[in-house]
Q: What sequence folds into this?
């Protein structure tokens, strides 16, 4: 295995890869300027560029640049990730009819990654094809007419998209992006993601099931200070598994994402003994359910509260390895 940490452009693009006809890239961040540089030097190279961290937004200048490149070059495709866990990988796969050369490392597909920052790339012998298959499934072309439903586009004062990750002012930039879009716009994007997921259910993982939010008091004597009411004991509210369904049979061990019927995006994972708790990482589960059932006062939520509002059961459909659609409506489980 050869490792490169100096003169990356000369080593990777200029010397090692001449003669190859196709390049597939997965990069957390990328810049349209760098893509234009590659096309200028390798005009006949077929390029597929998958940008994996686009959930953070794409600058208008880079977006215009990527679209312009695609419009002028039929052999170039640029994809933005719109579903799944954000992909921070840096992968470069060069291929021809008879050969293949693959590099992985830290260098983004950008001017910064190959010229300005100290980065590393290593040649490897093998790369699973499923990596590109899954990335394409989770992405849309940057020229897709629906792309603005899923991606935040913003005016940037920096030279390239990769700066978002690499510069110290990422927080102020993220705040600016956050303020630009209203809560209504975010809910609209979540709704479009919901619809996109419904259209792209992976049959390998597809499964519909339901979860009981809380057992009746006769089967749950401590209902008022555990589960979704754990906040009473200064603990994180969770949904506890019941004898009806083991969570480990329907959820992965790693973190996963749940898209709800009210256009929320929940980051979740299993916690507790035997992974028996469904824990929401980016939202207070008690507050979420209290809002759904219309409970104004802050007190333990009872089974009767849930029953009267029709929220005793969560209906979920597994769309792929780590994404789910969730609803309180029984009809929605038959996506």
A:
């Amino acid at each position: 295995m050869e490792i490169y940490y100096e003169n990356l452009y000369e080593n990777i693009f200029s010397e090692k890869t001449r003669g190859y006809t196709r390049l597939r890239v997965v990069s957390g961040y990328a810049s349209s300027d760098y893509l234009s540089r590659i096309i200028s030097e390798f005009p006949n190279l077929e390029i597929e560029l998958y940008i994996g961290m686009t959930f953070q937004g794409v600058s208008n200048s880079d977006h215009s640049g990527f679209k312009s490149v695609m419009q002028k070059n039929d052999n170039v495709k640029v994809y933005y990730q719109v579903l799944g866990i954000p992909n921070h990988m840096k992968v470069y796969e060069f291929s021809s009819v008879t050969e293949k050369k693959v590099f992985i490392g830290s260098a983004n597909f950008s001017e910064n990654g190959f010229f300005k920052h100290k980065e590393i790339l290593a040649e490897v012998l093998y790369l699973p094809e499923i990596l590109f298959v899954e990335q394409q499934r989770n992405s849309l072309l940057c020229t897709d007419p629906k792309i603005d439903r899923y991606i935040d586009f913003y005016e940037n004062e920096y030279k390239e998209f990769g700066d978002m990750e690499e510069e110290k002012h990422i927080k102020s930039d993220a705040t600016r992006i956050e303020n630009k879009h209203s809560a209504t716009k975010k809910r609209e994007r979540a709704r479009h993601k919901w619809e996109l997921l419904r259209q792209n259910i992976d049959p390998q993982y597809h499964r519909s099931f339901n979860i009981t939010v809380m057992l009746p008091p006769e089967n749950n004597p401590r209902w008022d200070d555990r589960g979704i009411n754990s906040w009473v004991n200064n603990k994180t509210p969770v949904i506890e598994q019941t004898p009806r369904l083991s969570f480990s049979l329907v959820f992965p061990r790693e973190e996963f994402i749940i898209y709800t019927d009210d256009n929320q995006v929940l980051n979740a994972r299993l916690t507790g003994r035997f992974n028996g708790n469904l824990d929401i990482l980016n939202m207070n589960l008690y507050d979420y359910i209290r809002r759904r059932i219309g409970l104004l006062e802050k007190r333990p939520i009872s089974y009767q509260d849930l029953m009267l509002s029709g929220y005793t059961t969560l209906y979920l459909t597994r769309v792929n390895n780590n994404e789910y659609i969730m609803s309180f409506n029984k009809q929605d489980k038959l996506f």
Notes: The chain has a mean pLDDT of 86. The radius of gyration is 23 Å. The chain is about 30% helix and 25% strand. The first helix runs from residue 8 to 15.
